[in-house]
Amino acid sequence: MNAKFYRDSFIILSSLFATILIVKFGWLHNFLLIIKDYNFIASFIAGIFFISFFTVAPASAILFEIFKTQSLLLTAFFAALGAMAGDYIIFSIIRDSLSNYFLYLFKKIIFISKHPFFKWKIFKIFRWLTPLLGAVIIASPLPDEIGLTLMGLSKIKINWFLPIVFLLNFLGILIIGLIIKEFI
Fold first, then answer.
1. Angle, vertex CA 89, rays to CA 87 and CA 94, nearest 5
2. What's the whole-model pTM score?
3. CA 168/CA 184 separation, integer angstroms
4. For the chain, what percentages of helix, strand and coil (3-state, to nearest 5) are there?
5. What pLDDT, in 10s, does the model give residues 89-137?
């Protein structure tokens, strides 16, 4: 195992532990009481943090509390705006650096793609399947990094990316809110 794995594991476990402490000792509830008139700002900020594997636990706890008392549609709307902003930042980094890296790799092994095997129509399906799979991951409660990577590799344009990501995040957060309202 490398140092990055241990570092990332430590960050994730610390985030989960901090979330448990924040909820258990009522700090989250007290924080939300202080900003009760600004819940939509809290929803936006929670949306920004809802997209990352490292911060999804505290963001979920905040959204959980807000959904219990606030408008479902407005909370999901502002959280989706925040998630879209966070996704845009990550997408810009992934699209500009990671996809260039993959293009470099593909150019290095271009002789493989000259093989007739890679000319089959089934490989053309992957051009459509990659962003579709990325969209499904973004709409799910799973962290968005993998979905954003798949969409970044597909070279989707920003004017398509932003409304799609907003809608996907809105629907995903709205479904979570509906589940919370139904069972709590």
1. 90
2. 0.72
3. 24
4. 85, 0, 15
5. 888 776 666 555 655 655 555 445 555 555 555 556 666 777 888 888 8
Is the CB of residue 66 less than 8 Å from the CB of residue 46?
yes
Closest by CA to 60, choosing from 145, 176, 150, 165, is: 176
CA distance 96 to 92: 6
Rounded CA-CA distance 1/11 in Å is 16
Q: Which residue has better confidence, 117 or 52?
A: 52
Cα–Cα distance for residue pair 165/15, rounded to 1 Å: 25
Instruction: Calculate the CA 6 to chain-centre distance.
Output: 22
CA dihedral 130, 91, 100, 98 (to 10 degrees): -90
Residue 64 CB burial class (10 angstroms; 0-12, 13-18, ≥19)? middle
Contact 51, 44 (CB under 8 A): no
In the DSSP assignment, the letter for residue 118 is: G
The token pair at 18 is 């901090």
- How far apart CA 116 and CA 122 sit, in angstroms, is 12
Beta strands in the chain, from DSSP E residues, in sequence order: none
Token pair of 70 as six digits: 């606030």
